[in-house]
Amino acid sequence: MVMRNVRYIPISETLWSAWYAWRPVFPIDDHGAFWLEEIWRRRHPETGQHEHRSFRTETAKLQELTARFF
């Protein structure tokens, strides 16, 4: 087992919670940056780094993509 130098992270910080992206962030489940909009954020239980997700459906992603080009 490899021990990492990560401080204890409370369980409440590892749950997904709504967060307003006041700076550009790149979600792990979506393409491109999200900025000045609501997104989901949590602390990764092992690394302690923040993770961001949009939790958008594939249909919503496709609709936004087509709206950009047409």
Fold and architecture overview:
- The protein is α+β, with helices and mostly antiparallel strands and about 70 residues long.
- It has one domain (about 15-70).
- The chain has 2 helices and 3 strands, in the order αβββα.
- The chain has a 3-stranded antiparallel beta sheet with strand order 1-2-3, with no helix packed on it.
- A hairpin with a 6-residue loop joins β2 (about 40-45) and β3.
- The protein is elongated and about 50 Å long.
Overall morphology: elongated
Termini separation: 52 Å
Main sheet specs: 3 strands, antiparallel
CA radius of gyration is 15 Å
Point out poorly predicted stretches: none
Query: How many structural units, i.e. domains?
Result: 1
- Share of helix, binned: 10-25%
Total beta strand runs: 3
Mean pLDDT: 86
Number of helices: 2
Secondary-structure element string: HEEEH
Strand order of the largest sheet: 1-2-3
By secondary-structure content and strand pairing, the structural class works out as alpha+beta
Beta content: 15-25%
